[in-house]
Model the fold of this input.
Amino acid sequence: MAKGTARLLVCALAVSALPAAVARAQSYGTGDQVLTIGPAEFQPGDWLTAGRFTRGSTDRYIYGCCDYFAPLNLPDGAVVTLMCLYAYDADPEAAVQATLQEVSLPAGGQSPGYGPVASVATTFDIGWGTVCTSPLSYVVHSSDAIGVHRAHEIEVESHDSLGLGGVRITWHRQVSPLPAASSFDDVALGSQYSQFIEALKAAGITGGCQADPPLYCPDRPITRAEMAVYLSLALGLHWAE
Done:
């Protein structure tokens, strides 16, 4: 069997052994991206709030008392760097506050809970305006160190005379950190390209050039056939129905 074919086979076998992952994306790469959560995505926190809020006829903001919630859907490993709140606040005695929260999703024997990650509140008292947090560096994880699954949400606390316009989240992807041990005998952990090679392996995009012993062959030229496998797996290419 040719080396290129063997590498292709190892790659395919490695992918078939990995669980499927759902990517929620605007685009790929490690540059900044913005996720906008508009007012229509926020839901009242209880039945009493549901009977007290209205939608602005000209600005479409949500006006009314109490708490509103919206999900924050970002890929695992995303880094949130900023949260900005858009609101209507002309009352110096009241404020609109937005809080990014972690929510625990416990299995049997585990405890539920939630906790704030970052908050920001209006202080401008001039009507329509925007206020942002200080720079953040929060990494989104779908589970914690003991295996409790997580969700993330935005909670907004408002008052009768104030309005919620939405929340904008600035975030970026990152390359996964190095594992505890190298996946390939010919790629030393901490070497120049090891983090990127390990990320390809962890994502199921490559299985290396040899299974036993596991080798990546980092200096060997890649074939067009292997490149087709890399791109198809990385981009999730599929056929149309």
About this structure: Residues 1-25 have pLDDT under 50 and may be disordered.
